[in-house]
Amino acid sequence: MEQGQIEITLNGAVIRARDGQSVVEAARESGIYIPTLCDYKSLPPAGTCRICTVKVGGRIVSGCTTPVSNGMVVESDSAELNDLRKGLIEMLFVEGNHMCPSCEKSGDCELQALAYRYRMDVPRFPFSFTNRAVDASLPHLILEHNRCIQCLRCVRGVKSRGGQEIFGFKNRGREIKIAVDTTHPDALTEETARKAEAICPVGALIKKGPHYLTPIGQRTFDETPIGDDIERGADS
Amino acid sequence: MRGAIKAIVEKHNGERRQLLAILREVQDGWRSVPEDAITLIAEEMDLPRVHVEGTATFYHFLSSEHRGDTTVYLNTSATSEMAGCAEVAAAFEDAVGTPFGSTAADRRFGLYTTSCIGMCDQEPAALINDVVFTNLTPARVRELVAGINAGRAIRELVGPLGDGRNASPEIHAEVKNHVRHPGPVFFAPFTPGAALAKALDATSLDIIESVKRSGLRGRGGAGFSTGQKWASCRATDAESRYVICNADEGEPGTFKDRVILTECAELMFEGMAVAGYAVEATRGLVYLRGEYAYLLPHLEKVIQSMRERHLLGKRILGTRFSFDIRIRLGAGAYICGEESALIESAEGKRGTPRNRPPFPVVSGYRHRPTIVNNVETFGCAARIAERGPEWFRAMGTTASPGVKLLSVAGDCERPGIYEVPWGVTVREVLDLCGAGPTLAVQVGGPSGVCVSERQFDRRLCYEDLGTGGAFTVFGAHRDLLSIVRNHMEFFANETCGFCVPCRAGNTLLLKSLEKIMVGNGTTEDLEAIEHLGRMVKSGSRCGLGQTSPNPLLSTLENFKELYAQKVRSDVDYISQFNLEYATAESIEVAGRVPPRKKA
After folding, report:
1. Among candidates B545, B516, B520, which has minimal Cα distance to B532?
2. CB–CB of B535 and A84 under 8 A?
3. Which residue of A128, A155, A173 is in closest CB contact with B495?
4. pTM assigned to the model
5. Could you tell me if residue B576 is inside a domain?
6. CB < 8 Å to B538, chain A
7. Residues B518 and B557 both lie in one domain
8. Which of A46, A155, B380, B493 is deepest in the core (most CB within 10 A)?
């Protein structure tokens, strides 16, 4: 094996991985899809959504924050884990107010796509119908708190030109929500709004302006389920 | 405002890690942390505004709204409810003229509830501008409000002072220690310096070996090997390391750390210094929960006097070893008892747990190797250094050597502190504390286990019933489900909100329990609760969510009949909505039942 190459066992099969990779990354490179929601490209992992929960040596951990090590035994696909994932998706659906048919992101939304993939019919939990306000006071960005899943992607991925954080968490527990530093000029630009909308897995950050340019039916997850690209090897 | 904020920031040298202390001062001064103050602090400290806002909105004792010149935080934990906090709350509302959860229009009083404040053996208790008032009654409430209205300082209103150091000028509190069953570790005489003198005669590796041999396990509840933790920290290459004492005693039902901090602070600080010597750290921190702010002057004084006796500071006992301790104050957040959340909070951030790995022993406070141990653990470590591991091992059981401090509260004649060897049975403790007919005992607080009489011969030790020390007795006459609800409300309020299962799941569990309590539950709902409870436990990121379903799961296991009586087995589904329940109040007000329409 090359320097830094290691082997792990994933769902019974031995796969190659690189030192320093997370379980999710190593699986992805081997064409195994471990679903994620808060994880995003090269951003440091957060571990908020727990959708990527796997079993490592019998212990339940999040796959995006767990580095691989040689000889590690990982299980990512079992009835128990898939039920937990579906449960987490359902929790997110009942916690916020997700009216998919009227959402700009429908068809491009990762939460919706995961719900389809895990065949969520109707959530097993009662809806909270929580009262969350929409904040459209910024010049270019709408904060649609009803749809926010508190994944922290915007906090980690959309910074000021100087690299300073302009998105953050406020409050605690079920009152937690995304806050924007409106005193920072970079937070108010059209460019920031564009980046924020692009990085948001759901429709919580919406750039003001035209939407629905790509018709329903031709959107990211309309034809193929989420994770399909990884499983077909498009990523490797 | 800018000048005042600037002065506060400068007083703390503009240090990022002092942000929580700075925000506490702003809250004290303005009775809130206004939006403008957040902006100014961010400017003065050159921090992203979202960082300051994030910290300012995370802690219960910081608020965006004015909390009143006099802020009452009444504890509403289960033992307080049992002791009559509803009447006390009504008396406050009546005397002040505003409901709990609000500030009076004239802003003179704010009435708020809070989670356990560590006074379970003297409830109902409240914090009024950081001053503790215990054993409250409606009459006493009227007296307090009248005193404050007459312009008297809150500290002057403190009633007969408690025993021991509670009566010292530094503490000056009506809090009682209630040490009912003293033992050899905490309440035997201790000569300051005795532990350090022995430790400094040995090598640091010898000390770690000795703590390993003693079998000491973390006293906060998780029971991790203390020697192992110290060894891992010392084995991590670093220029500096930290020793942190977790004095964020937040588990409802536990208050033993409060008594150690009051009466045995020297022993605890010395244990920290021994730990510092063992892991080669020169700096220690005590993270003191905001509820115990009243102990701060006392602890500062003990540290100062230990410095004067060369037990802390530079060149301890004339050796080359230096170690000093600073205290950080929390601001009301149970989650900060989790060691990585505590570190985040001590750094002035939101008290959100970190992802692990890396563990704090590798990368902790300021990314340096850090050991975080409980107050009681450091006390034990000092005694082990002084009297040797064999002496310690001779007490307790094989896998749980030594003694444990229990915080006994609830329905018994002698609530208070019991220092007992590990392995004592639930029944023995019930006899010691003078409990009458007992329905249940909550062992280890809400995150622990609720046991029924069938299990009273089980032993308190890691081999059987592990515990952080809370031992709450519920008498035969108690409504256990309302206690479970209280515990689930606690977790639903105290989750940090970072991960989905804990943030959303605990609220769903609470709702499900409420559905059952109002008579809308079915046997399927009980199965669903168990399933969801297991999901929250396995999916959550830290110890909070991994234990928060326990109040429900352990009573579903041990008191199944209580739930069975409440649910219907003849139907599969009943909606959350109950028309009779929903209209009961208006029917009472209207004094008549609306005629039913024929279908």
Report:
1. B545
2. yes
3. A173
4. 0.96
5. no
6. 53, 60, 84
7. yes
8. B380
Written as six digits, the tokens of B42 are 């961010």
- Nearest residue of chain A to residue B36 (CA atoms): A183
Q: B478, B512, B534 — which closes off a domain?
A: B478
State whether residue A221 sits within 8 Å of chain B by CB: no
Distance separating alpha carbons of residues B235 and B205, to the nearest angstrom? 10
CB contact under 8 A, A173 and B496: yes
DSSP label of A147: G
CA of B497 vs chain A CAs: smallest distance (Å): 4
Query: Within an 8 Å CB–CB cutoff, is residue B501 touching chain A?
Result: yes
Q: Does B495 touch chain A (CB under 8 A)?
A: yes
The pLDDT value given to residue B566: 94
pLDDT of res. A146: 98
Flag whether residue A124 sits within 8 Å of chain B, measured between CB atoms.
Answer: yes
Complex ipTM: 0.96
Q: Name the nearest CA neighbour of B398 among B422, B426, B428, B429.
A: B422
Which residue of A lies nearest to B351 if distances are taken between CA atoms? A172
Q: Which residues of B412-439 are buried (b: 16+ CB within 10 A; e: fewer)?
A: beebbbbbbbbbbbbbebbebbebeebb
- Domain encompassing residue B31: 2-56
pLDDT, average across residues B448-476: 97
Structure confidence at residue B575 (pLDDT): 77
Whether residue B578 is predicted with pLDDT greater than 80 in this model: the reply is no
Residues B546 and B446 in one domain: no
Question: Which pLDDT score is estimated for B593?
Answer: 85
Give dist(CA B115, CA B250) in Å, integer: 8
Q: What is the nearest CA distance from A123 to chain B, expressed in angstroms?
A: 12
pLDDT mean over B63-87: 98
User: B238 with B370, same domain?
Assistant: yes
Model pLDDT for residues B290-318, shown as the tens digit of each residue: 999 999 999 999 999 999 999 999 999 99
Confidence of residue A1 (pLDDT cuts 50, 70, 90): low
The per-residue pLDDT for range B392-417, each reduced to its tens digit, is: 999 999 999 999 999 999 999 999 99
| Full set of structural domains in chain A with CATH | 7-77 (3.10.20.740), 85-220 (3.30.70.20)
User: Sorting pLDDT into bands at 50, 70 and 90, what band is A236?
Assistant: very low
* CATH number of the domain within which B446 lies: 3.10.20.600
* B241 closest CA partner among B369, B365, B367: B369
Tell whether B199 and B272 lie within a shared domain.
Answer: yes
| Chosen from A78, A118, A158, A169 to mutate, greatest number of chain B CBs within 10 A | A169
